[in-house]
Amino acid sequence: MLLVLFVASGCSALIYEIVWLQLLQLSIGSSAVSLGVLLGTFMGGMCLGSIALPRFVCRRRHPLRVYALIELGIGIFAIAILFGMPYLDRLYAAIAGHGLPGILLRGAVCAVCLLPPTLLMGASLPAMARWIETTPRGVSWLGFFYGGNIAGAVLGCLLAGFYLLRVHDAVTATLAAAAVNGAVAMIAFGLAAALPHHAPSGGPIEDRAARAPGAWLVLAAIALSGLCALGAEVVWTRLLSLMLGPTVYTFSIILAVFLAGLGIGSSAGAHLSRRIARPRIALGVCQMLLTAAIAWTAYVIARPLPYWRIKPSLSDLWFRSLIDVAHCLWAILPATCLWGASFPLALAAVARRGQDPGLLVGRVYAANTAGAIVGAIAVSMVAIPGVGTQQSQRLLIGLSAVAAILALAPLLLTGRAEQRWTARLRGAAFLLVSMMTAALLVWNVPAVPWGVVAYGRQLPTRTLVGDLLYLGEGMNASIVISDLYKTLRFHVSGKVEASSDQQDMRLQRMLGHIPALLHPKPRSALVVGCGAGVTAGSFVVHPEVERIVICEIEALIPPAAAWYFGRENHDVLRDRRTEVVYDDARHFIRTTRETFDIITSDPIHPWVKGSATLYTREYFELCKRHLNSGGFITQWVPLYESSLETVKSEIATFLEVFPSGTIWGNETAFEEGYDLVLLGQAGAARIDVDELQRRLERPDHALVAKSLRELGFGSTLHLLATYAGRGRDLQPWLRHAQINRDRNLRLQYLAGMGLNSQGAIFIYEEMLRHRRFPEELFAGSSQHAEALRRALGQRPPSR
């Protein structure tokens, strides 16, 4: 029964983790620093809770009653976080800064929100452990409890990612998890009332006397095991998400498979621990086998997996997810099972009769969790940006070998006086051979092909990939710059984000030129997302612009754009008016006091996990508050690799905030309906066609006109002919569209489902059916109005 309760408890804990990370990223940002603070606080709370409970809660208290109170407290804190977050969010936005003070403030916000419930989560296993005696059988049950908790976490991960957050929202997910906590607490209270507890005699002094000799070496080994496990999870999640497509569903699958391996391994380790006399040897062997398992995963991810010919056009989410599960199981299951088995074996290795089971579990759990914190933060923020994923995996293999030495060396190289020297020599030989094998494995870790970083899941079906010019693995993303038939391509996290191709150049410059030309005197512009710098560079040629702010989350991107795309982006990154801010764009806009005449947003595709926060209603309202009077905002909307529901959601959400907004299509002679530019203004826009033409003919706008001619816009008429509709006319088409809000992030789930859709032309034609010539939008001479009407294929209104 307790095992069932632990499964339920693990389920609710993972739902909370996903919801809290999603909500807190909206407040403190989703940069690597912010995520490091979030993860460190979450896991740090669990670490402290596992240490604190056995030291501050008396052994005489009924373990089931203590456990029930813990579960009840977790649910209460979760609901408090849900409804208290908006107030804390407003307070943070009012006082937030940058640099070290800003990081400390983010840590304080995370501590206020996460420490109370995570302290209780960490305390739950030590609390329940006191129901068990520290016999081999009892210690094995602790391993089963740990495995059951992880099994519940798998269920919670899939439930949150594929149902609660996809169909409902953060409120529903939190209340569902809190209901689970409440049910677990009530059952535990009932069991406590029915089952008496006889507190064992003894105290801290007896507990210290009963500790296993050399226990600190086992704790060091399990800490290194935790470090390698979370460090490997960071590396493999980044690489696997490139190959499978970094959707919210992919991340849920990777996490679920990782946890499933831990749960399977923990159950196997618990079963083994009660049957072997020297679990410490088994722990050391596990760490040694991990050197081979990590090398296996590195090989699979770098060699066969990127070239599995699975059609990227598969549109069925569930079938696609099953294939992704198979990929992940094949790659990471061996290593995760061994990490899972390490925990119960470490418990058995340090357990002695007479110990407080709570202290035993708390000590081992805290060591493992502390190592995991170090591994996750160090690998994501230091190792990958410093030496790359290949060297990071080599480092993890080496650390696993060190963990094996810590566990095995005292047993193999020392011993009782009556031990024969031959036994010691055999032990030394075993360690030497193992170290040589580990060194060989380290040497042969392959690098992931650059095509994976460039094309991701599309790589197996591509016949041409071009030539590599630059590859960089940063703290937040991996980037590639390639050359395919003299066309430069800028790849971010497995997809082409920008290029010097005519079609991409049109879109990138339209995002900047349209608002800059419509604004009477644009002085300042904020560009969300640097990419190749072409959108930001379009403001360089406008003589009125005095300040260009580029907000970019990945520090590798602007220098690469400056070096390779300087001609296309008018050397914007070397322009004296340009300032680059390295931050999550949403966080920057929330915390800056500056306002702008133009905000242009060209984020990564909405199906990429986390990017939907730059398409929410609250984000657009935030941008609206940072626009000067008469200011404009432009937003990119892709039609390719998108479904009809996804595009409708993006447009409807934008028009909720900018009801007078207009839509402009990136059409070429070769393709109709590739992507869109949404244009919004605080008030109703009015476009004077004659004034716009005169402006382009002025000498100080000669470079603007040249920039437009390079893309086929020879006159004002050609530019305005890209008009594709406005909010008022599209209302019937958007009637049932789902609005993307902070509390549901509906777009990332819709976009993830429609990832492989190929209906761009159909979507565009559907939208154009509702286009009407807006008499009140375009002003000017009747000659220009009639020419524009003919260009748009619109009949004049009947008299």
Question: What can you tell me about this protein's structure?
Answer:
- With 799 residues, the chain is of the alpha/beta class.
- The chain is built from 27 helices and 14 strands.
- It folds into four domains: 1-200, Growth Hormone, Chain: A (Up-down Bundle); 201-446, Growth Hormone, Chain: A (Up-down Bundle), CATH 1.20.1250; 450-492, no CATH class; 503-791, Rossmann fold, CATH 3.40.50.
- The strands form three sheets. It has an eight-stranded mixed beta sheet, sandwiched between helices.
- The longest helix is centred in the middle third of the chain and has 57 residues, at 357-413.
- It starts with a helix and ends in an 8-residue tail after the last helix.
- The model is unreliable at 202-210 and 795-799 (pLDDT under 50).
Determine the N-to-C terminus distance. 80 Å
Percent helix among the residues? Answer: 55-70%
CATH class of the largest domain: Alpha Beta
- How much of the sequence lies in strands comes to 5-15%
Radius of gyration, CA atoms, in whole angstroms: 29 Å
